[in-house]
Amino acid sequence: MGQVLRVDLTKGKSTAEQLPHEFVLNYVGGTGFAARILFDELRSGMDAFSPENRLIFATGPLTGTLWPTAGRWAAYAKSPLTGIWGEAHCGGFFGPELKFAGYDMLILQGRAKQPVYLWIDDGTVEILPARDLWGRNTAETTDMIRERHGDKEIEVGCIGQAGERLVRFACIMNNFQDTAGRVGLGAVMGSKNLKAVAVRGSQAVTVADDDRFMELVDDAHERVLKQPQAQQMTKYGTPLLVAYKSKI
Q1: pTM higher than 0.70, yes or no?
Q2: pLDDT tens for residues 84-97?
Q3: Which of 128, 149, 170, 199 is disulfide-compatible with 120, CB 3.0–4.6 A?
């Protein structure tokens, strides 16, 4: 989509920045972009709960297309659990919706004075009060935000009580059951007094050659559906990986 949304919660301001072409050439997608930004912008020895920490929500180049597994997105920050690089991947529809709103990546910095949530509606970005959401669980928070904006299709990434209380393994939840569950990035979100990010978009993700891309998509879908491990993942989910990972 070519744009990055940067939000400074301390100043209460947001800016849309051009995605550097250098990033696209050298780092490809979300994980590479986030690694470069955290390396450039975080000082050595900084506490993970410092307002200086960046919390990044990023997508990949195929997010929002019909490519298999391209609905995923990831959150990044300095981890309060490990004190080093923090990366947590998530399913659901938040990543594609961020793309549909026109952004490849969201960078959050600073700390709000009071609990807030971020509302992204295509090109409109607002930092809104969340005092009534603070203390709610993630399902309640999602329902209340969708009701407030009159749209059940809004995608919400939010924290519950654990994130608010800075529990160092707190998660970020999306769409009730999808979880950015590793390294405590929900606590980073809580340290910024940010209860949720809600997003709605209407733009299309375009590719250079639609016909050729769809040929590759059809072939990839066919191969995935025939792959035994993919079939087991559909049935059992990621617990299937426990035995495999234990052998490494």
Answers
A1: yes
A2: 999 999 999 999 99
A3: 199
Tokens 């209407």 belong to residue: 202
Model pLDDT, residue 147: 98
